[in-house]
Amino acid sequence: MTHLSARGLKKSFGTLQVLKGVDLDIELGEALCIIGPSGSGKSTLLRCLNLLIVPDEGQVFLDNVLLTNPRIRPEWVRQQIGMVFQQFNLFTHLSATKNVMLGLRHGKKVSRAKAHEKAVFELNRVGLGSKLDAYPAQLSGGQQQRVAIARALAMDPKVILFDEPTSALDPESIHEVLEVMAQLAKERMTMAVVTHEMGFAREVSDRVVFFDAGKILEQGSPSEIFDHPAHDRTKSFMDKILR
Amino acid sequence: MTAVPTDLGRRSPPVPPPARVRAARPPFPSRSLRRAVPIGTGVALVGVAIYVIVGLLGFYGVGTLKTPLAFVLAAAVGAALSVGVVAARWLDPKWAGRILTWAVWKSVLQAVLAVFGGLVFLIGLGRLGIYRLGFAESQIPALLKGFYTSLEVVAVIIPLGFVLGFLVGWARTTGSLILRGFAAYYVDFFRSMPPIALIFFASLAAALALRNSGIDPYTAYLITQWVGVVALAFHTGAYQAEIMRAGILSVPAGQTEAADAVGISRIRTMFVVTLPQAFRISLPPLGNEFSSVIKDTSLLSVIGWFELSGTALNLVSEAGRPPESYLYGSIVIWVEAAFLYFVLTYIVTRTVRVVEDLFKVPGLEAAHL
Known about the structure:
The complex is a heterodimer. Chain A is α/β, with parallel strands linked by helices. Chain A has helices at residues 42-49, 74-80, 96-107, 112-125, 141-154, 171-186, 198-204, 222-227, 232-241, and strands at residues 2-13, 16-27, 31-35, 57-62, 65-66, 81-84, 159-163, 191-194, 207-212, 215-220. In chain A, the strands form 2 sheets. A 6-stranded mixed sheet of chain A has the order 6-7-8-3-9-10, sandwiched between helices. In chain A, strands 2-1-4-5 form a 4-stranded antiparallel sheet, with helices on one face. By secondary structure, chain B is an all-alpha fold. Chain B is built from 12 helices and no strands. Chain B is globular and about 75 Å long.
């Protein structure tokens, strides 16, 4: 069953067309990886899916609800679709627990006690039960990113979008973050991951999308894309990164 | 362990339940009251600092307060404060810990010591015969009256200027072209006007407007006086607007993007994400601006305010003849006025320091060199 889908997404920044008509379907409970060269528009695509960037043309549907309808509040849309950023973007003036609580308190208007309970639960879930009161500046990169994942999870999103979640991390931290994400995939959380971690894409994802120059070039199971790419551009990309 | 949130859908929680989350705290009527106690105590602390200073002046037979009464009152307030501290600790450890830290006590102690040291210095000079102590003491009651007037004016200018600066600084960072344009004109205009011209102009324009209005002359006079004060608040507001703008711009775009991503509205994001971080950056320059505008209040003497400088000017003109005593008198009076300006500025800048401590973020302290 198609959960989140995009139809004909187009987006330009000035004269540069970043998305050139993208159709994408994400199934319920699917872990989808989006790979491709830098600057191909992967991040823009993710941001268009939760309307952090409003697409120039095209539609986004969540469970057959048209999200790009101007009568739908973008705040509501973003509460349904979680997002994890490359640079973590934790609120630097708040402790880990408060970071996770903020969206619940001020987005979903949940009571303080309930939000606190939920925040503690989600932080334990990502293995940070001992860092509840730590501030972002006191945490390592991997820990910060796990707080960011807990922050997204706390909203009970229908989909989580990961925008290169490990690109700003050292190898050890990459491992701890990927472990949390693999666990989420195992629990059948619907997720779309823009990543350069080919090992993760190959092992954990259900489907891989190869994205280049604002278009989806090809998609399929990890083995199809990694071992038998159909397109020349995909082949040359794989040759460069899998050597 | 409390119940796990039920709205988790099909996911199964893989982790053990968390241990006890918060230390148990005795019940108390309401959260706002629990917070009000330590905040109120903080405000009272500043009040006591002022009171002790005035009391010390009273000890040397000056000012309006009788010595024993001043000290009894100061002691009473101090005792009440101690009770407040204990109560606040018991009620909410976090807030009490944050507000009533050593930093606060240190500030008060430093303020008292600085003022006391200054007094000992001045009186010491008098005892050494550098100037006539009797003359210096005789000027203090009038100067203290000027000091209170300055305090009164500052108490209007700083809050008003802060609110203006906050709103205009915010307006300059919004997407609305109208707000931005209006705010830019405001800043450009009030930053380029010399404050003395601004005060004259505002007060004289008010006088002109009220000339045939039928308001009784004394009320009209008071209005023109206070219009001059408001003009000075607009002046400092322009500077504070730029400080606020710098603070707001220093918060990375990723912060608002993250707030967007969890569905917090723009206006709430401003209050819960951007401003707390902007304030942390803006507070030191704001303290700078506060201390600067305190001394700008001396310009109000040109429209007839008998605040500290106006009083000093008046006293100097009456300091007496022959010429050499006039020279001595002027020096003594201005040293005393400067000292009182120092007290006024010190109270405000120390308060800003305490607020800075409140906005401190662990892990983001300044570099230790």
